Amino acid sequence: MFSVDAESKTITMHRGDTGEMTVTVTGYTYGPDDRALFTVKDMSGTEVIRREYAMENNAFVVVFANADTDYLSPGTYSWDVRYIVDPDYDSSGKIEDGDAVSTPGSPYTLRLLSTVGQI
Predict the structure, then answer these.
(1) d(CA 117, CA 91)
(2) How many Cβ atoms sit within 10 Å of the Cβ of residue 92?
(3) Distance of alpha carbon 27 from its chain centroid, rounded?
(4) What is the pTM of this model?
(5) Which of 16, 53, 73, 115 has the maximum number of C-beta atoms within 10 A of its C-beta?
(6) Contact (CB, 8 A) for 8 and 108
(7) What is the homologous superfamily of the domain 2-112 according to CATH?
(8) Which SS3 state, helix, strand or coil, does residue 47 take?
(9) SS3 101
C-alpha cells in the first residue's frame, strides 16, 4: 500500500513497498541547472533517504523502491523538498548549497507501517 493524502501531504506506506508521487512547483519557473532535493528524516533529524532531481516543466517524480524502506523501522518520519537555484556540490557530488534555497511549507509526515504479514 502506498498513498499520499493531497491535503496534509502525508505519505503512508508499508515497509519495503514501492510507490511514486509527482511534485509540481508553482509560483516560480526553475531552470535546467536548478534542482529539487527530496529528503526523509527520522525523528532525530538524520536523513534516511536523499534524492536530487532535475525538474521537467516544474515537476519531478519521487519513486520509492523496495530497498528505500525495507531496512527502516516502522514509525513516523518527516519529509520535505528544498529547491536549489544554481546548486553548489561537495567533492562527492552531493548538493551542499546554492545561490538560493527555498523550503516551501513545513516538513510533512511519512508513516511507515509494518511489512504486510508481519506482527
Answers:
(1) 43
(2) 6
(3) 20
(4) 0.90
(5) 16
(6) yes
(7) Immunoglobulins (2.60.40.10)
(8) strand
(9) strand
Residue in the block written with cell 511549507 = 105
Measured between alpha carbons, how far is 10 from 93 in angstroms, rounded to an integer? 30
Q: Which three cell numbers stand for residue 9?
A: 501531504
**Residue 49, strand partner residues:** 40
Q: What is the rounded distance in angstroms from the CA atom of residue 32 to the CA atom of residue 14?
A: 34
Q: How far is CA 107 from the centre of its chain?
A: 10
**Cα-based angle 89, 25, 12 (whole degrees, multiple of 5):** 90
Q: Which residue has the cell 506506506?
A: 13
Could you say which residues of the chain have pLDDT below 70? 117-119
- Boundaries of every domain in the chain: 2-112
* pLDDT tens by residue, 109-119: 999 999 876 55
